Amino acid sequence: MLRINSLGVKFGSATILSDVSFQVSEKNCVSIIGANGAGKTTLLKTISGIVSNPTGTIEFQGENITGKRPDEIVKRGIAHCPEGRRVFPAMSVRENLELGGLVNRAETPRLIKEVCELFPRLGERIDQLAGTMSGGEQQMLAIARALMSSPKIVMFDEPSLGLAPNIVEEVGHIILDLKARGNTILLVEQNAFMAMSISDYTYVLENGEIKRHGPSAELLKDDYIRQAYLGI
Amino acid sequence: MLEFIQHCLNGLIIGGAYALIGVGMTLVLGIMRVINFAHGEFYMLGAYLCFTIAGLMGLNFFVGFSLAVLGVGLIGCLVERIVLRPLRGRELNTNMLAMIGVSIALSNIALIVWGAVPQAIASPFPAQNIEIFGLSFTPFRLFIMAIAIVVIVGVHMFIKYTMQGKCMRAAFQDMEIASMLGVRVDRVYPITFGLGAAMAAVAGILLGVMFSLKPTMGEFAVSRAFAVVILGGMGSFPGAILGGLILGLSENLAAAYISSGFKDAIAFMLIVAILIFKPNGLMAVNVNKK
After folding, report:
1. A98: nearest CB among B166, B178, B184
2. Do the Cβ atoms of B177 and A105 come within 8 Å?
3. What is the pLDDT of residues A189-215, one digit of tens each?
4. Measured between beta carbons, which residues in chain B are less than 8 angstroms from residue A100?
5. pLDDT at residue B287 above 60?
6. Residue of B nearest to A49 (CA)
7. Nearest residue of A to residue B181 by CA position?
8. Interface pTM (ipTM) of the complex?
């Protein structure tokens, strides 16, 4: 469904990503794990069209979408739930959701109802300013906002970042839930254990290159991964 | 007593036009974080375009009014596209200097096109005063009041309730995320800047009819704009409205009861006095709030 072919990104003379290739099949959950600065966020931003002029190609459902504008990419069904939640703090929950549904506005009222069923807390706080909510609630809003574009694939950038352990678990359940509903997921995480426990397949990104990959269940047993990423 | 009320109302009407200038400035400052030194020149261009269409070409005043506001809005979009876009992401100082340059350029272009001789726009209404409860107004002053209210309320509703307005606010809170969600940031910027410029143009036409047109009239407007925005609190819409009304009111009362020669000095002294007690302005919002 999503196929990345030898993607490279440079900021000035610094190489952020080099020769990154991977693919995500339909209805799968694929995770990419890596340390701080490995290039995970840049990778997702490049797919979203925010980082421009990459080398290599990004294919989505057989179409080459490299170099397309961000609005064209989200319209094709790729949603991005950004690192650090990044909800619009001075806007209400409803306005945040409306902006998430910008690319298919006709569906917005129905989808708001739908995500509020999925996240009842958001329904209760629909007219509250997003900046006044707790970190966990903001993460739910960020996820709901990404779902508002009725995406075919949702990309999560560190959804566990800065959240209490019980909320991290909740986020994990939500992602599994989305997968069960037929969504395709690309999950980027520093929390390797969480990512590998919920994904089908895992790629390991180190210094801008894919170092290892395999089914998550196998990588969880891999000695190198256990030492470097799980600390056991 | 009646005389006092009359002076107050006259002051509030001029204040309404000042509020228009201030809200236009606040829009660009609060949303785009650009300090628009050329705001006064958009005010001036509004007045001169209306003068050209209604006065020189002889078309109806209201046609001139609408076309001039639209024209200045488009000029604002162009200035954003040509001057501000290449500087996006640079420091505030760079933008500020660029806007000072635009201001000088526009006022000199006006000097070349329309000359230094003051011009006037004829009021479309009869000169006869309208009496209400013993108070008298020229019809044009009532027109100023009505337009100021309609434009300010309209812009507020546009920003608060339309999708375009929401996209504007989103883009300026977090440009990257907004564009990730599909907001066309490259369109939002010129629209915002053009809207601010168009509001200045409305005020320029309204006050241009009351006073006179000079290529340097922008200085008058930009000094008012800064006073209004700082008095109200940077980035605050209600603050800009309140600031405009206070400035108009104090100028008019100073002219009526103290000395018309010193009315500007008195009004600005009052602003300084208010700022001593409320240094962030009357309705301050934190412009840098994320």
Report:
1. B166
2. no
3. 999 999 999 999 999 999 999 999 999
4. 181
5. no
6. B180
7. A100
8. 0.91
CA–CA min distance A198, chain B (Å): 26
Please tell me the distance in Å from B166's CA to the nearest CA on chain A: 7
Residues of A in contact with B182 (CB under 8 A): 70-71, 74-75, 102-103, 149
Pick from B41, B200, B64, B160: nearest CA to B110:
B41
Q: Where are the domains of chain A?
A: 1-77+152-162+182-232, 85-151
Task: Dihedral sign for Cα A102, A103, A109, A114, please.
Answer: negative
**Domains and their CATH numbers in chain B:** 2-117+138-277 (1.10.3470)
CB contact under 8 A, B166 and A95: yes
Contact A99 B183 (CB under 8 A): yes
- CATH architecture of the domain covering A1-77+152-162+182-232: 3-Layer(aba) Sandwich (3.40)
